[in-house]
Design brief:
2 copies of one chain form a homodimer. In chain A, the strands form 2 sheets. Chain A has a 3-stranded mixed sheet. Chain A has 3 domains: 111 residues, Alpha Horseshoe (MgtE N-terminal fold), CATH 1.25.60; 109 residues, CBS-domain (Roll), CATH 3.10.580.10; 169 residues, Tetracycline Repressor, domain 2 (Orthogonal Bundle), CATH 1.10.357. By secondary structure, chain A is mainly α. Chain A contains 19 helices and 6 strands. The first copy, chain A, is 64% helix and 7% strand. In chain A, a hairpin with a 5-residue loop joins strand 2 and strand 3. In chain A, helix 3 packs across helix 5 and helix 17 crosses helix 18. The interface between A and B is large, with 108 and 109 residues.
Chain lengths: 449, 449
Amino acid sequence: MIPQKDLDQIQDLVLARNWPELRKKLAPLAADEVAPMLLQFGKAERVLLYRCLGRQQAADTFSFFDDDLQHQLLSELTDQETRDILTNLSPDDRTDLLEELPAPVTQRLLTFLSPEDRREALMLLGYPEDSVGRLMSPDFATVRAEMTVGEAMAEIRRQAPDSETLNMIYITDDDGHLLDDVPLRRFIATDEKVKVRDLMDGYYSSLSAFAPQEEAVQLMKQKDFFALPVTDSSGVLIGVVTADDVLDVALEEDTEDIYKGSGIAPMESSYMRAPLYQLYGRRISWLIILVFVNIFSGAGIAHFEELIESVVALVFFLPLLIDSGGNAGSQAATLVIRGMALGDVTAADYIRVAWREIRVAIVLGLSMALAVFLLAWWRSGIAVAQVVALSMIAIVAFGSFIGMSLPFVLRKWNMDPAAASAPLVTSIADITGVLMYLGIASTLLGEVG
Amino acid sequence: MIPQKDLDQIQDLVLARNWPELRKKLAPLAADEVAPMLLQFGKAERVLLYRCLGRQQAADTFSFFDDDLQHQLLSELTDQETRDILTNLSPDDRTDLLEELPAPVTQRLLTFLSPEDRREALMLLGYPEDSVGRLMSPDFATVRAEMTVGEAMAEIRRQAPDSETLNMIYITDDDGHLLDDVPLRRFIATDEKVKVRDLMDGYYSSLSAFAPQEEAVQLMKQKDFFALPVTDSSGVLIGVVTADDVLDVALEEDTEDIYKGSGIAPMESSYMRAPLYQLYGRRISWLIILVFVNIFSGAGIAHFEELIESVVALVFFLPLLIDSGGNAGSQAATLVIRGMALGDVTAADYIRVAWREIRVAIVLGLSMALAVFLLAWWRSGIAVAQVVALSMIAIVAFGSFIGMSLPFVLRKWNMDPAAASAPLVTSIADITGVLMYLGIASTLLGEVG
């Protein structure tokens, strides 16, 4: 039993929301002290206290409870009130309180939750947003390496009603560490007396619960499995992610990337269901930012006002030239962003990508220069035509370089490369386009800028 | 036996590649006449002749052969030489020769092919490109409704080694028509003597082999199954598509849409592996097209040359205004295109989408007008500020309207809505932007356009 004085102190620390102190205070306590103490607190405090226990301590305390109390704790850990408390915590407090739960609790919690509740409640497991831990389900069958195939088949039959995915049977040691996966059909085709260990080939793919969901998409894309096993930080099998859930994630991620590609902030709801204020809110910020970026283009033009006044013909080619740089640039950005999303392009590829892109861009620029040169010659004479063609090459090459580099820069700054949207690349390319075009014109046509 | 005269005629028709005549000639023949006749021809002719048979006739002929000959025919139907012949046919000939194969042949062919060969060889089945029929695999377990659960379990065990997907057992009638799907776990939990028919609930989702692969993506997204059964035109179960294959399709489709969104033609290979000439080829066409679209913007500006010369300050706001229309427009296009790809927006929604978009666009335009009004007032006086603000509202509203309408128009013309790329929408919006801005300016500032 814990002395009343300590209990009062603990109570005060909970009220003061002083989690670091609370952790220190709780750390030395044994499970048989913690368990009865928890029962003396009200529901909300109990959950908060439980979340302050060390990982091993939390596991021991959980197993100290009988079935009914375990069930009660699980439901308290995941009910709406707890979710509200934990959702409304400050980021610091969340990190303190939402540490990874011990594997037995995670496994039980997953089974305990209905599929409808699961998505919302998985935030309680202590795995970061958009991590594999938020995606996993408990519907898998697992057997021990030391069983015979006959015992294993009996075990599989017992687990079958709860197992969505029976194609692959997961093999663990006595502590639940994942050792291998073996297709069900190999069990069916093998004599009952053979040891499960002899079916193992030691070759399997698994995901960490902390891994980003993107990794599940990429692994699933490579491996052609229906489900991938998920382990916690100590290698214990705690769930599976299934191909259909990964499909949902992939489609959502792609939608986000596609939206970002046009300067639209990610939305939860579909276009037709989204309220109008949301459609407005997700679009206005980039539109306003881009207005201000475009002021620089205007300023560039204003700087060359005299030149424009004396050779108004130049204005004819302005939209065409600056847009070309933006178009080539957003093509380059799109290729790099998608390559990054699919795992084909990594941060280390910058030099290789740049070298590919520069060569392609120069040939693109040459082709486009040729197309406008004839038009410009016919319309405004050879002098302007030279300026236009030369500008085109420079603008397309430089626009492509900007478009290709921006996703790398954003990633370096820990931002989403997909934020290198077509409008942003276009607006930046516009500024340099204006300066290059009118700069080249003022040099070649002998005007003062 | 078929008389030599007829044989010669048939031979001539094959050489003349006159498939319609050949069909007519073959139609009245019975399977026991066709089968020995086929053996008298060389491999290439045999395959072509077989593909000219009616569907029932082809099925009968196939079952007329013994196992070895069936095997031989299957390998001839799918070997490299045949693929080359069929790939190089004219589109008309392809339609004639690549009719849907009879279900038993399709099923056998799927099992016969190795997973590596499958993707390439599935074009031979007679299902259109990007159809579900090109995606299916034969790895499923099927039982008859009239079996007992005990018999069914024995059957499932027999099929297990070839069945990738054992979660769901498919129930067919004696002719192979799909009747229902039942989870394996329900078999395991049921007494052996119960009839399979009594496990059925008549509630299942299936795909036609002719359906576009997009439909598989959308159904899989809704249903959370690992695999969906595929039936041929007569409702016979011929394959399954699995969630991991659907994931690959979804990612490829999204990549294509994302590329199109920046005016890049679809590429097979990843960015890093694509040869440079391909990176060039997939990008240059839209870039050149857009150059010519942009000429209209230039022409619009040239039309107002005098106005620009007298109020050069107007040029300062030109990039900012026309880009804003393009940006708002490509946001709208992106939302509609993605909505269409995910099945949220259909062709029938045009009026609803337009009404939503117009209201949002006007508020977006007002916000942006406010932002530039102050800037323009400060820089160029109230008269120009009024012109700029008014133009902004008109340009953003109209740009959004264009962006939102273009995908609907393209779909109406049976083109891919995703071709309404950001650069295209931007370029079109630019033209109208130039005309609206300078038109409003020339009216309000009392200048002649």
